[in-house]
Each structure stands twice: as C-alpha cells, then as structure tokens.
Recover the amino acids of this structure.
C-alpha cells in the first residue's frame, strides 16, 4: 500500500515569508495527488489536485500554488504568506489502478504570525 | 466548497454503546467514503460504499447509503474509548479525480 511522507511536521513562519511544503509518495506509480487544508476543528478544503506530472488543477483562488515536478512528488508553495494561510495541510494520493480510496500523509501544521 | 455535511457535529457516548453519524450531500456521486482522524493526525480510510450499494460492513462498522435522500450513515457498534476521533464523509460528485469532505463529527467515547 501507499505511504505518504510530508515535511516539515510543523512550521511557524512570519507574514510575508515564502512557503514550500513537500509531499512524496511511495508504493504506487502515476497516482492522483491532492493538497487539502484543514482549519482548526473543521473539515478539509480541497486546494489542488494533480493527475500527472506538471498537471495541476486549482480548486479555490488563493495565495498558494502547487507543482508536481516528479510522478510521486507534490509541492505546495507561496511567495508571501498571509495570516489566513495558517492551518493543517494534508497531502493525499489515490491509486487509480486499484481503488478510489485516498491515502493521507501525517500533515504539516503551519502557523503564520 | 464542502460537499458532505455530517451530523451531529459532536457526539459523546459511553463505552459499549453504539454511535451513529450521518452525512448528507447535494449532488450525484459515484461513491461515498468515511474517514477517521485522530487529533492532529492525517485521515485514515475506513470504508467505501458505491452508489449502487445500500449497505456495507467492516468489522464493527456499518455504512448505509440512500441515494434518493442523498444521505449516508456510519454506525460503530460496541464503541471503545479508542474510537474517540473525528469522522468525515467524502464524496466525489461524479468526478473520480476529486473528493469533497464534510465538516465532520467529533466522537468522544467515555471509558
């Protein structure tokens, strides 16, 4: 089964600073990849998804961007963080060849001060 | 925007009791999934039910799906303190590439 790695686990950044969160996947090839954000005590908001290298779909207009430079690597970035970017960021993958199940990484807790 | 809406938002029960959580959604779907999240952790997949299925079991979990009412329920039988977590439903809105999550039900099982 798939294993999703995310780093860092926690991050505290000042407003206006850049951001780079990385997600890598093991145990599958050509997966769909997803970035979600979860506000405290809330559900997950789908931010981006990717069906292949270089293919990114954005779900909501925002201060963030995503890239997929390799098949099993998904990066979430920002040039200038806002206070509202604080949250819990989760990467997920879906193996299209087997099931519709999504597998989630451990998440990154981002605090923007 | 979120697709599913779970209710109740919070549920507190005694160990050994059954816990029932509900999920409603707005558009047609291919499948509906339930996930569990322990505090501060990633989500763990529990069970998937397809739009042509009405009921599914996995261990102490029972999921039902009523596509005419656009609703699903998750039943956890004989709950344990270790079941304490938030539970989310997710739907795909007939798009195999995207999943939409509800706000979740926070379950507290008291020992």
């Amino acid at each position: 089964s798939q294993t999703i790695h995310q780093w860092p686990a926690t991050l505290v950044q000042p407003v206006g600073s850049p951001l780079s969160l990385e997600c890598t996947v093991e145990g599958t090839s050509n997966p769909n990849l997803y970035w979600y954000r979860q506000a405290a005590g809330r559900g997950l908001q789908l931010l981006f998804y990717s069906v292949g290298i270089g293919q990114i779909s954005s779900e909501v207009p925002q201060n963030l961007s995503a890239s997929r430079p390799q098949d099993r690597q998904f990066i979430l970035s920002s040039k200038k963080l806002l206070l509202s970017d604080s949250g819990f960021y989760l990467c997920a993958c879906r193996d299209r060849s087997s099931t519709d199940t999504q597998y989630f990484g451990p998440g990154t807790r981002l605090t923007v001060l | 925007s979120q697709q599913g809406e779970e209710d109740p938002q919070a549920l507190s029960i005694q160990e050994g009791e059954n816990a029932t959580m509900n999920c409603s959604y707005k558009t047609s779907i291919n499948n509906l999934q339930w996930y569990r999240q322990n505090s501060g952790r990633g989500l763990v997949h529990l069970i998937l039910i397809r739009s042509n299925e009405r009921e599914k079991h996995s261990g102490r979990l029972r999921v039902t799906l009523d596509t005419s009412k656009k609703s699903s329920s998750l039943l956890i039988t004989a709950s344990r303190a270790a079941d304490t977590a938030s539970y989310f439903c997710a739907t795909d809105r007939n798009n195999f590439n995207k999943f939409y999550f509800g706000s979740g039900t926070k379950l507290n099982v008291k020992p």
